[in-house]
Amino acid sequence: MIELVSVNKIYSKGPHQIAASNNISCTIQQGEFVAIVGKSGSGKSTLLNLLAGLDTATSGKILFEGTDISSFNANQYAQHRLNNIGIIFQSFNLIFSKTALENVMLPLIFAGYSTAARKQKAQQALEMVGLGDRMQHKANELSGGEAQRVAIARALVNDPKVLLADEPTGNLDSATTQEILDILLSLKTRGKTIIMITHDQEIAAQVADRILTIKDGLLSE
Questions:
Q1: pTM of the predicted protein model
Q2: What is the CATH number of domain 2-61+73-220?
């Protein structure tokens, strides 16, 4: 489904150049659960941003179902994310003045759904993550685990082909972490391709089919 071919991302910092992604090549199959493990500053978030089209590679190719997305313009990247990618953020990235339902409905506005269809699809996504009884609660009234489940529902609502999860349990206690991991595993059984960024090797080993380790921008399996 995804293939990276000699991908480099280089940032300039004064007179120095920093390789956040260093000649990375790998493939990710449809339906696979892949964990990318690395410490802070290792380059794992840069790699996720490249996969999401939130950043562009300095060189190399990123192929999605055979199409080279590394040459996309901003509008093409936006359409790619809308149609193919769901992103789960560590900090949830919810609008806390809006309800859980309103937060999940937001991506559907850009997809052109009617109000009734947006509401129906958002309700279904929230029920899928066990929040059928919390739809009308504002995001600032939810626990951390509930907020992350809203974020997962929002990532799922457009039925993306790939879920990118950036430290999805980083701000959660151990019990809530397990709840989120169980949801991600259930999504894998439904055929979702999941790429999870984490600093925690133990969590990665618990859920992933394959673990990739990144250090100083270098990827190994």
A1: 0.91
A2: 3.40.50.300
